[in-house]
Amino acid sequence: MSTNAYSPLRWGILGAGSIARRFSSDVKSLADHKLAAVGSRDQAKADAFASEFGIPNRHASYEALVADPEVDIVYVATPHTFHREHALLALRAGKPVLCEKPFTINAAEAEEVVKEARERGLFLMEGMWTRCFPVMHRLRELAKSGAIGEPRLLQADFGFRAGVNPDSRLFNLALGGGGLMDVGIYPVSLASMLFGAADRSTALANIGATGVDEEMAILLAYPGGELATLSTAVRLNTPQAATLVGTEGTIVVSSPWWCPKQLVVSRSGQAPATEEFPFTGGGFQFEAAHVADCLRAGKTESDIIPLDETLSILRTLDGLRAQIGLRYPME
User: Fold this and answer.
1) Residue 1 banded pLDDT, cuts 50, 70, 90
2) Environment class of residue 31 by beta-carbon count within 10 Å: exposed (0-12), middle (13-18) or buried (19+)?
3) Looking at the domain that runs over 134-278+312-324, which CATH code has it been given?
């Protein structure tokens, strides 16, 4: 590692697809961050990505990327069926890791990656970027402060309509396809952030012709009696709103709640109060800045996306998939 200060924090981008592009575009806007290297299994793809974002080091293998001495941290941006393999590759090269959500395909894979990071004393975090937005910081404050009394019920959804393509990531079982792992993880993670680990769950789903969940309804219950009613889809455009209901009022995170700029607080007997949190760019800059803060403070995991919670969420997802009979070929 070149510096303990991580200023600038030098990113290595593992994978050169669409999510890597969105992340890199936002990181470029941060003055104390640097896109140092990109790795792809295709040199031409790595070169094109590097040229687009002004990245000096471009590698034709992931092994070369994680071995690059000018990389401080690796962002794993490959499809989630490869997250375990690529996160372990980076950790075993001595590099901290930010791994795009979902962290792995199941809890067993996640446990292996977390164990590796903890044994090596290396920073590791799931890239659940929604947690890092200013709106979400405010939501956590309001929920804990009693602003709406005792939070008891969450209603949240995330669905979009995609055309069926059996070979695409969304509809291919071999690539971990389906709504739950792609976008259903967002409302499940939101419920976890607010209520902790669910102790009961019910799931119903429509399984499409390719074998993946195309629409899904989820009910989660928590030890304190809280409930979360959630839904997700890859064949329906849902409202993409989130409402937290308390004993004394409600908080609505305006659509799209997973990339939020506004929330509305309604307290009993008072007019609704709108709070705005505008920003430019795509929003990944908040996640990258949080990672830098953690590293500069000498932390090995995030306090707002802790590893034990990532494991808990994946166990919940495993349980939901079991209820609808959804199993991936690599499991």
Assistant:
1) very low
2) exposed
3) 3.30.360.10
- C-alpha pair distances (Å), 39 with each of 1, 63, 74, 90, 211: 19, 8, 10, 12, 32
Query: Which listed residue (101, 115, 261, 299) is catalytic?
Result: 101
Which segments of the chain does DSSP mark as H helices, in order? Answer: 18-27, 43-53, 62-67, 83-92, 107-120, 134-145, 179, 185-195, 284-296, 307-324
**Structure tokens that stand for 39 in this block:** 């790795």
Is the pLDDT at 239 greater than 80? The verdict is: yes
Same fold, 9-130+285-300 and 134-278+312-324: no
Give φ, ψ of 164 to 5 degrees. -70, 120
**Is there a contact between 133 and 260 (Cβ–Cβ < 8 Å)?**
yes
User: Domains of the chain: which residue ranges?
Assistant: 9-130+285-300, 134-278+312-324
Chain CA centroid to CA 177, Å = 16
Note whether 324 and 205 are within 8 A (CB): yes
Does the pLDDT at position 3 exceed 50? no
Residues 245-256, mean pLDDT to the nearest whole number? 98
Give per-residue pLDDT as tens, 265-284: 999 889 999 999 999 999 99
pLDDT of the residue at 93: 98
> Residue 261: is it exposed, middle or buried by C-beta count within 10 angstroms (0-12/13-18/19+)?
middle
Alpha-carbon gap, residue 5 to 125, rounded angstroms: 19
What are 19's two structure tokens?
């999510």
Q: Secondary structure of the chain: what % helix, strand, coil (to 5)?
A: 35, 25, 40
Q: Which pLDDT tens digit goes with each residue over 74-121?
A: 999 999 999 999 999 999 999 999 999 999 999 999 999 999 999 999
95 among known catalytic residues: no
Average pLDDT over residues 230-240: 97
Report the first-to-last Cα separation within the chain, whole angstroms. 35
Q: CATH for 9-130+285-300, among 3.40.50.720, 3.40.50.2000, 3.40.50.1010, 3.10.20.30? A: 3.40.50.720
